Amino acid sequence: MLAADFSRLGQEVSRIVDAGADMLHFDVMDGEFVPNFGISPPFIAAVRQITQVPFDVHIMVTHPLRYISALVTAGADLITFHIESDDAPDDVISAIKAQGVKPGLALSPKTPISAVTPYLSDIDLILPMSVEPGFGGQAFQPSTLEKIAELRQIIQELDLQLDISVDGGVTTEIAPLAIEQGATILVAGTAIFRSQQPEAVIEQLRMGAI
Ligand code: ZN
Question: In this predicted model, what pLDDT tens digit does every residue of 186-210 receive, in sequence order?
């Protein structure tokens, strides 16, 4: 959603949902965990009045526990927080589940997979970031593909059911590569919102899954 034209928010949301988006992804930032601001709960609540598609809320914040309640009230269906944040992961996962929504865990490009493996059995989604968190429009880091493959292998070995999401620099060229390695959710901002034909872009992103 960060790539949408906020001056015409209602039309943008309708355009993307009508084009076939399965979920809307919101990037929430606190200006501390990353040196930038993102989307806030009132914005998410406003979009919730327009559509009922699932909301995937990605929080790049130092203290995730402070925001969970407000995000659930605003309409979040899934909340993905960063392993590099300050709150204890077990506490954040429990707090998200206690609110009746699904927990996800994100890791920044420099963070090793070993940091998240203890939590994989407690979450619904793992998000190895393919760009540095905090800014849209960055190029996909190719090393992410190896991370996706490694995560898929661990998930299979542990016999777990969780989505692998890829977020940052996802284009129609990157999509089949990420899917081949095991990605099950593709987050695309610029590629979809800046296109005059978002249906075609979403269709192409999906085709990698066949
Ligand atoms: Zn995100």
Answer: 999 999 999 999 999 999 998 866 5
Q: How far is the CA of 79 from the centre of ligand 1 (A)?
A: 11
CA distances for 55 relative to 5, 52, 85, 147, 208, angstroms: 18, 8, 21, 25, 23
Q: Which domain holds residue 128?
A: 6-207
C-alpha 133/C-alpha 1 separation (Å) is: 15
Cα(138) to centroid(ligand 1), Å: 12
Whether 1 is in a domain gets the answer: no
Out of 27, 56, 124, 163, the active site residue is 27
Residue 41 belongs to some domain of the structure: yes
* Cα-to-centroid distance, 167 and ligand 1 (Å): 6
> Is 167 an annotated catalytic residue?
yes
pTM of the model: 0.95
CATH code, 115: 3.20.20.70
Active site residue 27: yes
